[in-house]
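Example A, followed by Example B.
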Amino acid sequence: MNRLTHRVLRRTTWLLLAHATAFAGELPPLTEPDPGAVDAVFTDWDRTDRPGCSLGVYRDGEILYARGYGMANLEHDLANTSDTVFRIGSTSKQFTATAIALLAQEGKLDLDGDIHDIFPELPDYGAPVTIRHLLHHTSGIRDYLTLAWVADWSEDYTIEEALRLVLAQRELNFPPGSQYLYSNSNYFLMSQIVERVTGETLHAWAATHVFEPLGMEHTHFHDDHNHIVRHRADGYSPLDAGGYRIDMTILDMVGDGGIFTTVEDLARWNAHFVDNPLPGGAGLVEEMETPGTLTDGSSTGYGFGLVVGEHRGLRMISHGGAFVGFRAAMDRFPDQHLSVAVLCNVSTAAPWELSRRVADLYLADSLEPEPEMEAAPAEDRSALVTVDEAALERLTGHYWSADEALVREVALTDGRLEYVRSAESRNPLEPLGGDRFRMLGVPFPVIVRFEGEGATPARLLLEYPEEEPSVLDRYEPAQPSPDDLALLAGDWFSEELDATRSISLRDGRLVLEGRHEDAVLQPVIEDVFAADGLVLRFQRDDREAATGLLVDAGRVRDLRFTRR
């Protein structure tokens, strides 16, 4: 046992005793797991030859257990600890939402006011886009990270360039308020709203009005990649040949992400949801935890930077994050006064799963039972269900969703189904019984379900935690002739991106040329092609010549290109 572990265990014992005394008869009881059982959740990362994670378990902001696993820096043999600083990706959004809500309380913002009043450069969309739309991801504004990727930008663009890109979009993904679609532009724009309203950057304003009042001394919005951060973990991604590579970013945009913090500081953040020290008190918390409503009256399930859902029968407020070599998850069970944060510095970690496995240890007496197949730990799931190869063969084929720009294949390899994004990206599918499978090798739970009568299923559903499933329809790939493909090749220009993408014909296949690598366009249906998360829909004139192109990329829809 190292000194850090010994110190944390002593602190844990004292805190557990203190809580047992302070809250006797007042709070729902928690199970007190053996520290070894908690550490066992992180067995894969508790090593000195790989990056890993830090864990924080809290009750009303007090630390019940905190510990680091694996290495913060592989070059200097620095271990992760409870005070290691991590980038937490989109888990940052709740901090941005807090800043916006506080400014609204001060009367400096109208959450239901049109953002055109703050950004007069925005095109007229024919309907107002409000700050509340931004908060709930119902604005329809296209995601700037996806736009930059479609434009084939290098990964060194500035805050100013990202803002110009968003403001140049003449169309929305959908009418404001009519749909929920997660978009990083919403929260990036809110960072710019803070700056335009207060004259301070989000970094500076949040430091004074959020982090300092809460005593979060090691937390900040990281809007300068050259800023030196003590005790910071490096982010890593695995190499195919073994080992790891550094996986960091020099992008300085914040609001949608950009928080650097520790599990110790997050104890103070979780305490604010109970103690309510910030202006607005309990009313602020209630507003943040209230999901948005669409124009048809349905709920988005998303509050102010927070996902509002449940876990095994218990109310759960949560958010995760994933960017470059960092992954994060923070789950809060308000009725049980328990919170868990898992911060990781490796792209293959699954903090969502780790966090909930830890929470299950503390909430064991309060949880509803899980279905047997979904409850089994990863190491114990082998051979739970056996399926003969003929039954698996009928599920193979091609599936796509026009709405979400998803084009996938289900293949059978060595007797096992695989979910195929590309030749380099394949995830095994583990049978759960019937036509249901669990996707392996992903950072959050995904259940794959096949539906439809007859010899082959008509559709594939991807089921996620607290979200509507993605529905992909089965299709037979089109087989265009070389002459048809030649009509589609050429240079295509997007005015909204101010970028040209070239499509060439090589060896009988269309190829989308890229700055770093090219992508082969796979035929889907007539005049529709897919490549690496893009769906391209060519439009023809009366003479059958291709004159227009619409590109879909998940969080970007109907992006227009014209032939040059």
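Example B, a separate protein, is given below in the same form.
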Amino acid sequence: MSDFIFNRQPVQYGSLSNIISSIYSVAPPKIFEYHGKWGSLAVSQNVYTGFDPYETKHHILVIIGGPVLSFCDNSSLTSSDHNAGTKAIYERWISSNQIKWDMDLLGPFTALFIDKTNGELTVVTDIMSFIPVFASSFDEKLIISTHIDMAAKAAEKEADWDIISVADFILSGVVTYPYTCYSNFRQIAPAAVHKWQSCRCEAKSQSYWIPTEKKGYSTIAEAGAAVQTSLKEYVGKVTKNMKKVGLFISGGEDSRVVLGILPKDISKDGFIFLEGMNREGKISRKAAKIYGAKLNMYARESTHYLDILPECSDIIGSGSQYGHIHAYLFHKLCGLNSYSAVFGGFLSDTFLKGHKIAKIGACYRFPFLPEIKQRKDHYCDPVSNNFLYDDILEKISARRRHHYDYIKQLRPNSADEWVGLWPMSMQGDIPHINGHRHLFRSYEPFTSPAIVKIAACVPQSWKLNRRLFRIAAKPFLKPSKWLVHTDGRLPYFQWYFNLPLQFIRKVCNKFRKVFHPYTIPQYAWYDEEKLLASKKAKELESQYNMQLEYLSRILVKNKNDKLINLLTNPVQKRNLLQVAYILYKNQTCERTILEKV
């Protein structure tokens, strides 16, 4: 549940704690407060064992997230010492000042370091900004937080919404970096050490890694071996002192890889959330049995992803899609927060399978065909529709072009891929990490810096058609080589072996859809169109009707039209409902916004 708010101007004791507590509907976590001439700081307790704040006579160190430490044995993950991990980082940082952030700390993290003697503040972002950090830029004030709504509230700037960013989020599910939903706040750069002197509100930033386009491996086999080594090293360091772990198991291949890497002598409890036992569940059960894990299937309400809208919107904040916090409610129901580690296979698609590489349209319509990269990148095409104000769309397009031009300088031949990765807030489903870290000790092996670096230095052609992933995953997939994926293929084998299998599955699905349709989805995901057409969705529209009208007045050309009725994409409708909820929660904010329009 850990977040922090830093204010350079000292404030009354308890005020920052109240802001942090406001994002929790029930039972807010323990909150630490620190005050001095340097300013005020509030930090909610970290769910990861061993990473509570650490204070000395001269310094304060805060670690957000649960990084795996490569320079020690990670006994802090199961220790009764609540800040053993933080102390280990502090001692390495202070003693040698040679800490290597891209090698010593693996996985998502943010480090905040205060020198109480001279007021200097240092914030370190992880290699991809899996955990984004936001800073103010107004009135010579300095407010920094890992939660954008908290930051705006601490600055008393909740009403200073950036309407361009709000529209950007509704249309695309992300806010183009470095902008936020608030005019006076920006996201700070990933993979960098940011330092603020006591008398300055502008930071001096130094990157410790940049994803430049360069070749790192001579063969795909060499790169695949490096992926194998990195995954085993990450999982081994986490589980070294553990006897039991949890993990998410699906009908796909990524969870099988994690199952294959986990030590055989460790107890493994698997979890899957479905609307009812289906194809995905049956395959998951077989996978769990093959790898010696116990599978627990929990039924999910058909309206689950609308039921959790208020609480998850509060946890993740404005400008991030709440719906990717899939385990919310289940984290308590399943006892996920009782495990020393809960593993997932998230971002394997992104880093190793070219998920963000623009491909020709046929690859999406017919997934059994070989993947071919699209020649023209359409990211910078003008954002257009016929109902939003033209100047809003033009400004969104300009921001995207500016970000694309920056990425193009770093990666001339793969900007189409990395424009949606650098930083990770440009990928809509990243709340899966940033949300779940609030709920339980989540570990995602594919976030290891070594995996990120491999992804950055291999040709895109190696990622297409799962070539790199398959080579790396082959030993871990071997026990389940004859167990089909939910989409009908056998992950152990090459794409051309699976082409007829996937084609047959697609044809069968077409016939079944006509003659004998399923009553529930056969995958782990829900039916977005059905959800947004549900009675629950209509109830939310009614509840937030005033806020939806306000947003229509701000964004839509024709004042007689309602934005919720103009949007045909169900994901965009869900984004709009999330924005409406945030306005609903702060009705003073919405009135102030309208006054400025």
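On Example B: The mean pLDDT is 92.
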